[in-house]
Specification:
Layout lengths: L8 H5 L9 H7 L11 H15 L6 E7 L5 E7 L2 E3 L2 E7 L3 H8 L2 E8 L4 E11 L2 H8 L4 H9 L9 H15 L10 E15 L7 E8 L2 E6 L3
Antiparallel strand pairs: 1-2, 1-5, 3-4, 4-7, 5-6, 6-7, 7-8, 8-9
Helix pairs in contact: 6-7
């Protein structure tokens, strides 16, 4: 067994887990905000995302996607939101990947957005359905050419013997299509999560956070507030 890695003074002086905020820290961390309004949740989400686009250092549209496998064991990974409207939240991926196979077996998912710069998060759960071929084609055409090649070259989630295997695939695909248009692969498409519930969370001092939940009710929504 190899010897344990020694802890240097510099390492030991820095706690791995930050201490809980003091009273003064919590009070100063959040500005005075009016209570969240029970309005259309999609419009509220879009407003929050616009704010996050101004303050998040990377990928304000990143979200954790949770699915379950055939044994009911959950999986979670980060994906990018590529569309949102009254019909749901859209992302794109390889349909033969782990997430694609899991969604084929259990077409339901949960999404979580966390914007650290704003001290806010949104989480939702709902049913999942594939987007139309027209939607998938339209989005694929906007991707960078290298990303289009990568969609053909990668057997996402499958075991890869070595890095050179992927690089060879990339070279083969690039040679195949040359300078011509690269069509969307048949195994690459999008999914739309149609939320049954959406919860908005906003940080408040002393852990007295705000939680506003919207639940689908026919064509509209009901709302309720939760204890933090």
């Amino acid at each position: 067994m190899p010897p344990a890695c020694p802890i240097t003074p510099e390492m030991s002086d820095t706690p791995l887990i930050p201490a809980s905020p003091a009273d003064d820290d919590s009070a100063a961390a959040v500005e005075s905000l009016a209570p969240l309004e029970a309005r259309d949740p999609i419009a509220l989400f879009e407003a929050w995302l616009r704010e996050a686009l101004k303050t998040e250092p990377n990928d304000a549209n990143a979200m954790a996607l949770a699915t379950v496998d055939a044994d009911g064991l959950p999986n979670s990974r980060m994906v990018l939101l590529k569309g949102v409207d009254a019909n749901g939240f859209v992302f794109f991926t390889n349909t033969m990947s782990a997430k694609g196979r899991e969604l084929a077996g259990a077409p339901r998912a949960a999404l979580t957005f966390h914007w650290k710069s704003l001290r806010r998060s949104v989480r939702l759960r709902g049913d999942v359905a594939p987007v139309s071929a027209v939607e998938a084609d339209s989005y694929f055409a906007t991707r960078a050419r290298a990303a289009q090649i990568g969609a053909w070259a990668s057997d996402q989630s499958a075991e890869m013997p070595d890095r050179l295997a992927l690089e060879r695939r990339v070279a083969e695909v690039a040679l195949k299509f040359g300078l011509g248009r690269i069509p969307r692969p048949p195994h690459w498409s999008g999914y739309r999560v149609s939320p049954r519930t959406i919860e908005f969370w906003r940080n408040r001092p002393f852990r007295l956070h705000e939680r506003l939940v919207f639940e689908r009710a026919g064509e509209g929504w009901t709302t309720r507030r939760l204890y933090p």
